[in-house]
Amino acid sequence: MEQTEVPKLRCQRIGCNATFTEDNNPDGSCTYHDSPFFHDGMKEWSCCKKRSHDFSLFLEIPGCKTGKHTTEKPVLAKVTPTPTPKNPVSTPTAAAASNLSSKESCPRCKQGFFCSDHGSQAQPQAAPAKSQASAPAKKIVDINLPQTCKNQGCGQTFKEKDNHETACNYHPGPAVFHDRMRGWKCCDIHVKEFDEFMSIPPCSKGWHNADQAS
């Protein structure tokens, strides 16, 4: 009698997306995030306060909480962003302005000599040497090595030997966040809730890509 393979379930916690079985789901096997929030183009996780302007990099931030995998979608709490205090702009004082004026009229300063009243002249700084960027090294990949696809909306594990031009279902993007709406420009679908946004089905097919898009 052949042994029936136990079907794998997909974890619904934000930031996990791993597959598991009920028989192999120990505590601590899942790493995930709580609710995200978006404000003025910034994406931030409410749990660890890590943030990014780029949505792809935002989703790459490793989960900060651990627990068991679950098939139940999390209830996202409404989070309001904390305003970032702005650094006060300093203005030159009257004394500094007066010192600058007297320095410009000082005959020793004008000739480039040291002046005890106004300090030494600033030495010219040498221009930094231009660094020549080297070409990136070609990546050698084992065709049997499991990799995680970095295409937006995919996140599947694949092997290069099984990769082909229609293996990946993904969103070319970009992701759009505007007036509390979240969506994809590529397929022109927009929703209000983040979990609904993450459930929008991919609209394009292509090759899996394990390299983060620049």
Summarize the structure in words.
- This protein has 214 residues and is α+β, with helices and mostly antiparallel strands.
- 13% of the residues lie in helices and 19% in strands.
- The protein has 4 helices and 14 strands.
- Residues 11-69, 149-208 form the CHORD domain.
- This is CHORD domain-containing protein.
Give the topology, please.
Blueprint: E1 9-10, E2 19-20, E3 30-32, E4 36-39, E5 42-45, E6 51-52, H1 55-60, E7 65-67, H2 94-105, H3 107-110, E8 147-148, E9 157-158, E10 168-170, E11 175-178, E12 181-184, E13 189-191, H4 194-198, E14 204-206
Antiparallel strand pairs: 1-2, 3-7, 4-5, 5-6, 8-9, 10-14, 11-12, 12-13
Write out key terms for the chains shown.
214 residues, alpha+beta, 4 helices, 13% helix, 19% strand
Give a brief description.
This protein has 214 residues and is an alpha+beta fold. The protein has four helices and 14 strands. The strands form six sheets. A three-stranded antiparallel β-sheet has the order 4-5-6.
| Low-confidence spans | 130-136
Give the helices and strands as they follow along the chain: EEEEEEHEHHEEEEEEHE
The coarse overall form would be elongated
Q: Could you give the order of strands across the largest sheet?
A: 4-5-6
The share of residues in extended strands comes to 15-25%
Helical percentage = 10-25%
Sheet having the most strands: 3 strands, antiparallel
Query: Helix segment count?
Result: 4
* Extended strand count: 14
Mean pLDDT: 75
Measure the end-to-end span: 51 Å
